[in-house]
Write a structure and sequence with these properties.
The protein is of the alpha+beta class. 17% of the residues lie in helices and 35% in strands. It contains 12 helices and 32 strands. Strand 8 and strand 9 form a beta hairpin. The longest helix has 19 residues.
Length: 633
Amino acid sequence: MNEKQINEPAVEEVNVDIVSTEVSGDPEVQASTPSVTPEAPLPNYLGLDLFQDVKIVKADELIEEDIEEDIPEEIQKLYLGTFSDISEHQVITGRVIGMTDKDVLIDIGFKSEGIISRSEFPSEELPTIGDQLEVYVERLEDRRGNTILSKSKADFMRRWKDLREDYESGKIITGKTVRRIKGGMIVELGVVQAFLPGSQIDIRPVKDFDQYLDKDIELKIVKLNEARKNIVVSHKAIMEEEMKEQRDALFEKIKIGEVLEGRVKNVTDFGAFIDLGGLDGLLHITDLSWGRVNHPSEVVKMDDELTVKVIDYDEEKKRVSLGLKQLTPHPWERVEENYPVNSTVKGRIVSMTNYGAFMELESGVEGLIHVSEMSWTRQIKNPSELYSMNDEVEAQVLSIDTEERKISLGAKQLQPDPWDKIEERYMVGTVHKGKVINLTQFGAFVELEEGIDGLIHVSDLSWTKVVRHPKEIVEKGQKVEVRILEVSRESRRISLGYKQVQDDPWAEIVKFYETGKDVTGEIIRALEKGIILKLEMDVEGIVPFGKRSKKERKRLMNAFKPGEKLTGNVMEVRPEDKKIIIFVDDLPEPEKKVSKKNEVQEYLDSQETPAGEKIEIPGATPNDTDSSDDKEK
């Protein structure tokens, strides 16, 4: 037995059913009271009568009588108030119990006071001891054991709750625009900020957002994001609701043909939208003017007050089509009176195409100046050679087609036609100076004066040479003398001769190249049908191969090279072909012999080229001719 067991008196264990105290209902006291039986005496610890106030109640006594104890209601409330269900991220009510230099102390019924930073209160709105405040529980206990509260977040949550109710009910609220951001503006709704898109500020597009800054504006919440705490508001929605009644009333009264007053609220590429007082109508670009309109801004501007005519409307889609030009008569109704044929008119170039230029005579009336009617003398390929857009020009009315609404105009008709007296100024047979302005396969064009030119055909370039292209004789830009061969005022053509300025040398050539005369010439080229020689007096001779086989012709072509000298006898002179026929004894005889005369005659009979035309040597190809020309050069 240890010392503690020796010093402590022995206690006999007894059983007591129910123990009640008359002094205290403290559970701790009851728990510390030992159980005893009614028959056993109460134990005495160390001489202390601890259970002198304990009343022993028997079980049958409890059953037979009910024990009732009246507790005052105020005490019950105070007792129940000690049990508080507080958690983080909730708004509760607390009482100000003190202040420090940095914090405000709040009693929220928790085991410790909560603190709110004094920075959350404006200096002039600090609470006083005993004030009741709604606060937001941020943290029940931080690392220092403090309960962190927030006044601003409590205000935000309370305001958010009110805004959510306004959103669900569709209530109109008032906010203040505080700043601009990309795409819209920020609006203050008390302690909550909302986004007002630029498209929701007004019914018409807003260009200057600054005019709405720092102003109170009626709004309607159109979107509320609970998770992100975002709010989108609209002022346009309120205006549309207000205008809906006006629009419905206006649609009941509107009629096609009715003239209304309106204001331009928006201008687009395809037209302008007109505010008719609660109802918008479209004034299409084609209905702005009878004339040509490139963009609606040429006719109307933003906020213009206009008088328009209703030309159509759709009651189901609530669309109204308006017209501005319909308020004036169509200008084509009096075109024949205002612009008689042969009269001179003034206008502005409004469009150009490859075939002509369109001139606006008045709004809605245009005429075409065709390229063929722009100049008497010049061949105009594109009107841009003479005109530019918006040029003010004069023209003569040539014809009017009222059914097709077309007017033909002419600009050259205002100038005298130089071809009227062309035959007097350029008489046939006279010689004139000019400049080569163009070369073609068939001839050279020579400008006699500005706008007047004539053609030298290739057959009229040389008396003695067979000219295959004008560049063999003349070049572009060269000053030349020409003789007038023919003038046609009706077809506006002048035929010129270059060789005709000199006398025809063939009379002397025939005398010089008498039959049988021995001549020597330089080989120009060798063809399958013969050899071409360059002779004296700037003429060409030909040595025909006759009826030789193809193989023999090729052998001869290879045997004679350009630049070599060749001698033969003159067989015949043909001025019409610009050729002298030469016979050469050194050529091998053909397999079937024929007389010299027959050989020459066969060749001549095969040549039916008219005078002045290109002579094609039998068997020669274009490539042969071209290559020979190149070698000559």
